[in-house]
Specification:
15 helices; 4-stranded mixed sheet; 6-stranded mixed sheet; Alpha-Beta Plaits; globular; Aminopeptidase
């Protein structure tokens, strides 16, 4: 029996509609960006086995091919840290009296073991609408945006009024050598600027991909590690005693785990709660609105604190991250130690928090030692019109109705080296993260393809506006 043509066509269309969605091909300019992003992710830049210097060299080569002379590209490597090099690139402005704008990103990434990941962490994979790989979220998407932006500006013949500088550095993820600190201390003139844009301030989307807010960081908490240690004569395990180093340390750690530091605020944290309250609605939104109006409303603060990320915006936090104890299966422990990682609210000091930990545990046998760490972030930089207006205007063009929200950075970035030294540094990427933080520092790190491309377009417009 002959089947009518309309039935054949109808069946074919139905079959096509039933096929899984195919990723849309990137625009030519997006494909060029993607190539930079891929190259960066596939260069291992971990402290243990990678090389930031190699990544910096590769990015310098891309900028040379875009037309940058050697005089505007500065590869900075110290003899003591040959694999932790930085790249500074300069697009000169026409007005020598106008202070520069600096864009900053770090090249290093946290460790990632292949046996733990579903995919090779150092292979750039696009799958199911996501870019996968170590550094895709933190911080190579942004580093690639800066390189792509400078290359495009040069190829377009864009002549900024203000000088635009880019610094790609190493050591942000906790290495002893920090490239941003080194540049500030030894090459200040090379990166000096009126203000800087850095990582952080990511937008937030819900599980469905709906955008909730565009974030901008102004001010951040200070990360400090404390070594807690108990020592003991030990002995044979057949003769246990109550004075056990592990038990004493564990009792102190439980007190830390149960403790909430006092509620504190900054202008940016209050601004966040004031703007997000109406957006979120419900009990959480009502609590945010109430707390923004009255910072002594501890009932509202308790509701906000139920969310770990929001709780971190309210107070200093401390958490045990590492444990080590004992020396033999059949011996009483002679030593028990732990690392407690604290994120100190602006205004606090490592010394103050260390004293608080000792008082909280109330055990003179638990010795508390403060590890050398990152600079205190200093006072939060002001969110001036010069910084905010281009961001608000660009966000309104791209995502009408999505609010731009000031935030207190609850992690830590290289802004802690720049802001206190006189270069106000703001966290802004234009990239939206998933509710899980896009798995940064975790397994199978990923970021939405759409979010990266859209963020790239937006932040390039913002920087162009700053320097034109």
């Amino acid at each position: 029996m002959m089947v009518p043509m309309r039935m054949i066509v109808g069946a074919a269309m139905a079959a096509l509609l039933a096929l899984p969605a195919v990723a849309q091909s990137p625009r030519p300019d997006q494909a060029q960006y993607r190539d930079i992003f891929k190259e960066l992710v596939e260069i291992n830049t971990t402290l243990a086995s990678g090389s930031c210097t190699l990544a910096a060299e590769k990015m310098a080569a891309r900028l040379r091919s875009a037309g940058y002379p050697a005089s505007d590209l500065h590869l900075i490597v110290t003899p003591a840290n040959p694999k932790e090099g930085s790249l500074v690139a300069v697009l000169p402005g026409s007005d020598p009296k106008a202070k520069a704008v600096l864009v900053l990103a770090h090249l290093d990434v946290v460790e990632a073991r292949r046996e733990d990941w579903s995919r090779d962490p150092f292979r750039f994979i696009e799958e199911d609408g996501y870019f996968y790989g170590r550094g895709t979220a933190d911080d190579k998407a942004q580093a690639a945006i800066w390189v792509d932006m400078l290359a495009r500006f040069k190829k377009e013949g864009f002549k900024p009024r203000r000088t635009l500088k880019m610094a790609l550095t190493c050591g942000e993820e906790g290495a002893p050598f920090n490239g941003a600190r080194h540049l500030m201390n030894d090459h200040r003139a090379l990166i000096d600027a009126e203000f800087a844009l850095n990582e952080g301030g990511w937008g937030r989307m819900d599980e469905s991909g709906k955008r909730i807010y565009v974030g901008i960081n102004a001010g951040e908490k200070t990360p400090v590690n404390y070594r807690l240690e108990v020592t003991n004569p030990g002995g044979h395990s057949m003769r246990p005693v109550k004075d056990n180093a592990i038990y004493r340390l564990a009792a102190g750690l439980l007190k830390i785990g149960a403790h909430d530091f006092p509620v504190q605020t900054t202008d940016s944290s209050l601004g966040f709660f004031a703007k997000m309250g109406p957006e979120l609605g419900g009990a959480m939104g009502a609590a945010m609105t109430a707390f923004a109006k009255n910072r002594t409303d501890m009932q509202a603060a308790a509701i906000i604190a139920a969310d770990p990320a929001f709780n971190a915006m309210l107070r200093t936090t401390c958490v045990t991250t590492l444990l080590d104890a004992g020396h033999a299966n059949n011996a009483l422990p002679q030593r028990a130690g732990a690392n407690v990682n604290c994120r100190i609210f602006p205004g606090g000091t490592p010394e103050q928090v260390g004293t608080q930990l000792s008082e909280l545990m109330d055990d003179p046998e638990i010795k508390v030692t403060t590890a050398k760490g990152r600079n205190a972030g200093g006072a939060a930089p002001p969110l001036t019109d010069a910084v905010m207006k281009p961001i608000i205007a660009a966000a309104a063009r791209h995502w009408p109705g999505v609010p731009v929200v000031p935030m207190l950075e609850i992690g830590a970035t290289d802004a802690s080296y720049l802001t206190p030294a006189g270069i106000p540094t703001y966290g802004f990427t234009g990239i939206f993260f998933e509710p899980d933080g896009s798995r940064l520092h975790g397994l199978n790190e990923r970021v939405r393809v759409r979010a990266v491309y859209e963020g790239r377009d937006l932040i390039t417009e913002v920087v162009r506006d700053y320097v034109k």
